[in-house]
């Protein structure tokens, strides 16, 4: 049996524009995510002029800026980076949930891919493990997802 045509984005970042929107809160983690995302984009052919970084105060602030960037079609894909670490209050649940929902809505409403690189962890140790530690780096993972989604959207056309 002949396999059907498969459409999937590749990891060629050349010719694409990316915006990384990164939270400042928990910057000891977010900076590691940011460095890995930028390095990953570069390793797949994105030059300095193809990547912009926008800083926001915290993860809760990511969706409004991501939507603004997406609405204006500044980029082929957006990478949202942040770290929400559980504390002793339900604040974590509100911030993490609203951040995720807002980023999903921005992507769905605008058609611009938004890669989710926001860590939601129980403690700083788990966050560190996902920001370059034993569990890899979710910033690099989000950059790969952004490249693949931007390419996929180009392959699908208007």
Question: What descriptors fit this protein?
Answer:
158 residues; 46% helix; alpha/beta; 4-stranded parallel beta sheet; 22% strand; two-stranded antiparallel ribbon
Helix-strand topology string: EHEHEHEHEEH
Overall spatial form: globular
Average pLDDT metric? 95
How many beta-strand segments? 6
Largest sheet: 4 strands, parallel
Q: Determine the N-to-C terminus distance.
A: 31 Å
Task: State the secondary-structure class.
Answer: alpha/beta
The amount of helix comes to 40-55%
Instruction: Report the portion of residues in β strands.
Output: 15-25%
> How do the strands of the widest beta sheet line up side by side?
2-1-3-4
Low-pLDDT runs of 5+ residues are none
Q: DSSP helix count?
A: 5
Question: Can you offer a commentary on this structure?
Answer:
The protein is of the alpha/beta class and 158 residues long. 46% of the residues lie in helices and 22% in strands. It has 5 helices and 6 strands. The protein has helices at residues 27-43, 62-71, 91-110, 124-130, 138-156, and strands spanning 18-23, 51-56, 77-85, 114-121, 131-133, 136-137. The radius of gyration is 16 Å and the shape is globular.
């Amino acid at each position: 049996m002949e396999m059907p045509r498969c459409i999937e984005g590749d990891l060629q970042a050349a010719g694409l524009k990316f915006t990384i929107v990164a939270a400042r809160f928990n910057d000891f983690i977010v900076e590691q995510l940011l460095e890995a995302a930028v390095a990953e984009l570069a390793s797949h052919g994105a030059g300095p002029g193809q990547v912009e970084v926008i800083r926001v105060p915290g993860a809760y602030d990511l969706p409004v800026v991501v939507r603004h960037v997406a609405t204006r079609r500044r980029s082929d894909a957006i990478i949202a980076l942040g770290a929400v670490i559980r504390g002793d209050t339900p604040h974590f649940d509100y911030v993490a949930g609203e951040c995720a929902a807002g980023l999903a809505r921005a992507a769905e409403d605008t058609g611009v891919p938004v890669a989710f690189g926001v860590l939601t962890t129980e403690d700083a140790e788990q966050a560190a493990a996902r920001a370059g530690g034993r569990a890899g780096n979710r910033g690099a993972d989000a950059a790969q997802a952004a490249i693949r989604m931007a390419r996929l959207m180009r392959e699908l056309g208007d």
